[in-house]
Amino acid sequence: MNWIILRWVLLLASAGQVHSLALRFTTLEEQEAGVKIGSLSTTYSAPYRLLNERYIRVDESTGDLFTKERIDRETLCPLRQDGDCTFSNTAVVSLNFEVVQMIIVVDDINDNAPIFERNEISLHIPEDAPIGTAFPLDDQAQDKDTGNNGLIRYHLEDSGGFFAIRQDEHELELVVLKELDRETLENHMLVLVAVDGGSVPLSAKANLNVTVTDVDDNCPEFDADSPITAIVLALGIKGTAVAQLKATDKDLGQNAQITFSFSRQISDRAKALFHLDGRTGLISLAVDVQVDSPEEHTLKVLANSPLCPPAQTQVTVYIQPVTSPEPSIKIRFVTEHKNQVIVLQENEPPTVLALLELEDTSTAKGTLSLDKDSMPFSLKPQAGSYLLSTSKPLDFEMCSEYNVTVIISDPHGTRLRRREVIKVVVEDVNDNAPNFEQTRYKKDIKENNKPGEFLLKVQATDADSHQFGKVRYRLTNKGPFRIHEETGVISVVESLDREQQETYILNVLARDSGDPSQEGFAIVSVKVLDLNDNPPTFPTPHFYFFVSESIPQLSQVGKVTVSDADQGDNGVIVDVRILNENVPFAIDLAQGSLRSTGEVDREKQDRYDLLVVAVDGGSPALSTTVKMTVFIEDVNDNQPQVLLPSSNLSCLTISPAAQAGSMVTKIYAIDEDSGMNSDITYQIIATKPALHSPFQIDQHSGNITLMQHLRGEDYGMHHLFIVVRDGGKPDPLQTTVWVNLLVNETLEKCHVNAVPDYLPSRLPPPMPVKDCRCESNSWLIFYCGLCLMVISVCVLLAVTVVFIKRKNTKRKEEKNNVWETGNLCELKPLN
Asked: Which residue ranges run through the membrane (predicted)?
C-alpha cells in the first residue's frame, strides 16, 4: 500500500496537482479511537487515501476522518504551552489524484492537575510585621494544560484570619491580616491550595508552615511565687542564702536575658548586709550577722532587660537576735569537700558523705533528722553520731546541686530547735554520648550546583556539661562534601554530576570532648536530582553508509543509535530527523535506523551529505547534530552508448595504399556506470562480405587497424558488425554498431543506404582480455631468454672443468704419500 501511495505522490508532484491551501480539522485530546473529526467529502470526491495514518484514519469511500488512537496534547506538543497544538497530514483524493494538505488542531482538556514542586513550604515572618505586609512565595504550582485549564488561582485553608493570598500575573504573595504574637502562637500551619481554571477544576495542596520569629517586645516580670519575706536567724554566716527571686521574659535568646540589681532606695545598712547575684537573683548574706535586737530590712529589687523599663519587687528580711546558745552540728567530712561543700561525682553508688556530731549546750540533748525533701540522702545514728550518706547514685544531668537540710529537734522530736543546711555539689562525668535529633536525614540537591552550596544542618546534643557536652562533627566518608565541625552545617564543595553518581550516603560522627570521648552517629542520604545538562549522543560524529542504487524503498540503509545520559524526560529522545530537504531518506526512530524513501540513481547523484538532529525531552530541550554520508554504489543499469560512428549508416573511404598496421578509424563509446560496469571492450562478431576481413579491432581502445596490405579482392565495401560490451558482473550489458569501410582508389565520399540484414540468434561471449604489452614485446622477451640460457651453459662448463682439475691433483698427492712411507695401505676409491 505504501509503495502505491508513494508512486502516486511522485506522479502528482510531477504533474503539479498538489493543493497549496490546507484543510483544518479540530479534535479534543484524550478521546477514544474512532471519534469522527471531520470529512473530506464536503470538498473533494472519492476515493480517499492518507499518506500517514499515525493519529487519524480515513474511510476510503466516505472521506470521513476518525481518530486512530488517543492523542495526548502535552506529549504531542511538550514545548508549546500556549497557542495551537497541531500536526499535519496529506490526503490523496478523487480519481485525478489530487493531493490535499491537512492540519489537525488538538484542543486541550483539563486533564492535568496543578503540581507543587515541594509539598512543604516554609516561611519566616517577624512578629512585629505590620498588617498588610506582603511576603513573596517562590514555590508556585505548575500546570501542563493551556488556556483557562492551565490558569491557576490560589487560596489558603486554616489561616485563622491571620493571612491571605495576593496574586497577580507574575507574583504570589502572603499578606498579613492580623497582628502576630510569637509568645501566643509561634507556628501557623496553613494549607496553600492551587486550583486551575477548567470547567471541572483540578487542584493541588501544599503545607505552608509560617514561623513567627521573635522580636524584643516583652519585658521581664517577677514570678508570683517569688518570696516577699525572709527570715535570717541569729549568727547568720556569710554566704547564707536569704531569698531566691525569680523573673521571666517571654522573648527568646538575647531578648529574654534578665539582670537583677538593688534599687538605689535601699539603706546603706542593707547594702552592707546583703548581696544580690545579678544573674541568678539569689539574695545572700554579704557578711557574718549577729544582732542583739531584731532588725527589719526592706530590699527593693529590679529585674532589668534591654529596651524595657525595669520590673520591681520588694523583699522584707527579718533578722532575729541571739537569745541563748543554740545547738550546733559538727561535720566531719568523709568524702572530698571544698569550703564546707561536699563534692561528689555522679553515678557513684550509695556513699557515706560525712559524720555529723550534735554539739548541744542545753541540758536536754536533741536529735538530728533530715527534712522530708532531702532526697536522695539518708541520716543514720552511729554510736552517738550520725552518718550522712546518699541513698542512690546521683545524676548530674537531673540535679547538679543539693541543699541537704538537717533538723535539730528536742529529744521527743516535738519542737524544732534549729536547721542546718549542708550543700552537696555533684560533679559531672562524661556518661552521655552525643544524640542526634534524627538518626537519618534525607536531602535532595540539583546537579551542577555551585561549589560551597549549603546542603543541610545536622545537630546533636550532649546532656553532659562543659567540655563533656561540647560536640564536634566529622564526616567519616567525605567525598565532595564538608561539614563544619562546630555548627554541623554540611556543604557541597564540588559541582555534582548525577550521571556520574546519583546517590551519596554520608556517615556523620558527633564526638564530645571527654576523655575518653563518646560518639554518636547519623546517616545523611543525598539524592542528586537530574537537570537536562547532557545533549543526545551519537556513537560517532560522522556516519558513513554504502547502498546500492537499486535499493528498494523503505529498506534499511544503516543503524542509527542515539542515547542521552540524563534521566526521565531529560533522557528521552523525542525526535530524530533529517534537516536536509528533498532527500530520499528518512529516520526510523522506532527501529533506530536510516531508511530509503525514494529511488536513488548514482548517475544523477553518487552521494548524499545529510545533517541529522536528535532532540531530547528536557525543558529546555537539548539537541545534537551529526553528519551522515550515504555513498550510492553503482549497479550495471546503463548500456554502453556509441558516440562514434554517429550512426550505422556512417561510411569511411580507405585508400588501397594504406600500410599494414595503420589505424583506419576508431569506435568511441561511453558508459554512465562506474568501475567495472563502465569498463568497455570491443569485438567484431561478423563481417560482410563473409570472407576473411583485412581489418581488426583493439578490444580496449576501439581502434580499427589493417592486419595486412590490401589486395585486389579487398576492393569494395566492408561491413563490420561490432559488439560493444561493459564489464558488469555477472551479466554485462552491450550494444552493437555497424562500421562501413569502402576500399577505393578515389577518396570520394561514400554513402550507405542500408546495412546488411544481420540478426544473430545469440551474441558470442566476450573475448578474454589480452595484455597488449606482452604481444608488442614478445620478440624482446624471446631474445632476453635466449641470452640468459647461453650464459647459464657457459658458467656450468667452467665450473665442471675446475672441479675435474682439482680432483685429479688431489689423487696424485695421495698416491705419492703412500709410496714414501713404505707401508702397505689399502687404497680406497675417492668419493
From this structure: 779-804
